[in-house]
Amino acid sequence: MAQTTNAEKPTVISKSPLVKQTIGIWTTVRFKESLVDSFKPTHYWAAASRYFTSLPVVRRFVVDVYTLNPPLVLLYLMGKAWKGIEPGITDYIRTVAIESMSEEEFRQDIVNNNLSGYIMDEYSKARKRLGTHFARNTLRELRLEAKLLVQLLRALSGEIPVLYFTYHALKDPAVHTMSSLAILRQQSSALITSVDMSFLMFSCIMQTLNNIQSLYKVRPLILVDGTIEYSPQKDCRSGMDLELKDVSFEYPGMKSGALHDINLHIRAGQLVVIVGENGSGKSTLIKLLSRMYDASEGTVLIDGLAIEEYRLSDLRDAMALLNQEHSIYPVSMGENIGLGYVACATDPEAIGLAAEKGGATEVLKSLDEGLDTVLHPVKTARGLELELPKHQVLEDILDGLEVQREVSGMSIRFGFRCLEVTVATAGEKQRLVAARTFMRLCSPKIKLVAVDEPSSALDPRGELELFSHLRAERVGKMMIFVTHRFGHLTCHADLILCMKNGTIVEAGRHEELLPLNGEYATLYKIQAQAFAPAQP
Ligand SMILES: Nc1ncnc2c1ncn2[C@@H]1O[C@H](COP(=O)(O)OP(=O)(O)OP(=O)(O)O)[C@@H](O)[C@H]1O
To answer: Which Pfam families has this protein been placed in (predicted)?
Structure first.
């Protein structure tokens, strides 16, 4: 057999990457401060993570090295844990994002766009993919913030079996052995887990009950669903026919009503503009027409039938509502727009076209990740807290891990990735929400388009383009606009409704209302005067 010379040995070692890396890490740790400073963190981390793929040596490594440099070992372990959970993070973030879409700020949008079914589906899909890996605030839950009562019960759960054993061992020493004590110990840790789980479940149930309670606190939200399918008559190709008979409405807790005795008929296919001072009831009127609320008195009729008779989901499917309370969902920009029409939610061409009509193309171009950008990323940065010495190399390694960290004095917090994205301006958000509405208009079911002050933050060109694009979509639909700026719309309106103190004070076309010199003429002239040449 050939003898191996001493000179050949290093070559043999270097052929095995695992051994080489192990020695590399070992050497580094042994020389600690002196060598660590000259070691490149990225290489270091890559080597460390590869090292950990070999499980049999992990235990040995930890035991040997922990005594030399505990912080570094903790870092390795954290890194390993990170690698393990990383694949689940996308699903975790998705779960939390979809879950947060059930919050109050998105309620109106979700209801308007009839998205509850989609959200439930997406949530259960993401949750399924996630399995049992994560719950809310993952790492914190793993540690389970121990409250006093929980601590007490945990302690008791651990000690009761031992007390039981001691009592019986004293009573009958022959029967009880050390192995029975071990079994009891095992059982007690199972008991502790059950206690922890019970408290976790209890807090979840309490949270759910609170949510349900707050949902039902607002009386007008409780709408009784109808049974009749809403399918516009075949000969009604121009949208909904809407009629209000003696309609009044008051919000709960409001001293005087928001609407009084409204009588109105809007024929299918008309383009209607509602104008009036602040608080005159314009938005409330839209909310009744779209059945966000039910009238306190009187009747709202759609195609001759009381609005309450129709199935709510059918009505929602037939309406596209764009209002001033624009909310951007905590999902990607593409999905934000796509959710306007779920059937085409992943069609990039339809999304691109909708973005163009909504004036959002430039906004999307300005975002680093374009349609994939998440404007309000889910905040998941709540993780383990380690007491580590402040050390440049450690900080560099943390940078390499791509985890969010906060360095405050001696402690370093680990958490999940939490990307900061440039927050869009109010005008940019309006454009994105408008794009979602244009996406919604792809649906052949839309018969009513109600647009409530969607351009308050848009520049004049953006506003003009938005209204022109909306008007271009009017075929087969009734369109209602609420606006304070008459310029682009009133001259195109088939019907202008001028409101004051919760009633319609004037109704007609621009050329009919102007000569009346009434409320409409006054509001119109105030705006027109702004463009008149200044008086000397
Ligand atoms: N959710 C609410 N709860 C209680 N009162 C409300 C609510 N929303 C509106 N109101 C009140 O109802 C009245 C009509 O409000 P509405 O929003 O319909 O007016 P508006 O003409 O659309 O006003 P603006 O031009 O400022 O948007 C106002 O007195 C307003 O304060």
So the answer is: ABC_tran (PF00005)
